[in-house]
Hints:
By secondary structure, the chain is α/β, with parallel strands linked by helices. It has two domains: 3-46 and 99-206, 3-Layer(aba) Sandwich (Ribosomal Protein L4, Chain: A); 51-91, no CATH class. Helix content is 34%, strand content 14%. α2 (30-44) crosses α3 and α4 crosses α5. 22% of the residues are buried.
Amino acid sequence: MPKIDVYNIEGKKVSEVELKEEIFGIEPNEAVVHSVLVNFLANQRQGTQNTKTRSEVRGGGRKPWRQKGTGRARQGSIRAPQWIKGGIALGPKPRSYYYTVNKKERRLAVKSVLSSKVLENELVVVDSLDMKEIKTKEMVKVLNNLKVEGKTLMLLPEKNENVQKSARNIEGVKTTLVNTINVYDLLKYKNLVITLDTVKKLEEVYA
């Protein structure tokens, strides 16, 4: 079982915690992580792009010149794809990019990224994040105490308005909940800050 130090919001080590091997200590599966990440990004696409075919472009109803005798190539419409301002031959049309990935794959991908965070020392465990009031300056102070630099994801076990609103105006910092976690956010943000309660919740959900 991987062991990791636990800090308080002042940045002082207060204890250690043993993390479950099957969640924080597996060998990361890059192929599954890639598959789930591509699926997540595809499902975010709106699919509203649209180009006009030759039948949808205004005009072009009359044959531009007679079929034979002009010395030019035969043409049926000035809105054919080869003409400037003509229709698009094989352009994109509105469609859904949504598809699903097996639940086991999604869970394995999350566990793989969590394990890689432990391996790369990018996981910071805090005993608790007790914010008495909504104050961005205090949250900045906490992150500085924890020596967290760069993009940071704060993973909470449940909704905490004081923490979420204190962190939302800090550039490069995002808060999310255990039940809304996704591989994209875990990979996008270098550092992962979690509480002891979050560890328990993750072990319950992904055990």
